[in-house]
Fold this protein.
Amino acid sequence: MDEKLVAQRVSEVRGRIAQAALQAGRSPEEVRLVAVSKEVPPEAIRAAYKAGLRYFGESRLQEAQGKAQALRDLPIRWHMVGHLQSNKAKHAVGLFELIHSVDSLKLLQLLQRHAQRQGKVQEVLLQVKLVPEPTKHGLSVEELKRLLQEAQGMEHIRVRGLMCIPPYSPEPEDSRPFYQRLRALRDGLQAEGFELPELSMGMSGDYEVAVQEGATMVRVGTAIFGERPR
């Protein structure tokens, strides 16, 4: 992949993030850009790293392990942004700095167990399902509160915030109500005493809307690396 093209795209995304943040009265420094590198070859990730990116998100554990090995000379901070199966929790703890997609008590308990064994405090986000789509993973609002209460007793788990994936729409504005709901939910939980500084929301098609609505992390892939090969 052309290094100059990747650098140009990274610069453009950062500029749009900054503009969206300023429009909302926020500092651009409040927003972390996580480059979603699933199905992207290591050399493209290397080009994005050279352009200044440090956080990279993967959706499949095995793919992420291969890339981490190929790029072991770079201090990349790997994030798990896809659905994590319970039987892969052990290896996920060993690789990912942050897991965005915790969606069950069973998975949370497994992460706690493996993090304890590995002598690590695993940082996680809880994925919230804001609409009852059977194909989407995530916690209901009721389940979310239960998991937060359970996590308070887990010494090797640190819940950093919430994540959501809105229903797909080609119109960025269609995502706004979902991001507003996630932020309101987070703010309400913080008022109850839960410390949840992070909101992971927004992808290539709507990250500017997400920033305007309070995202602290946006997960951007296509806008940096282009369309994935079919």
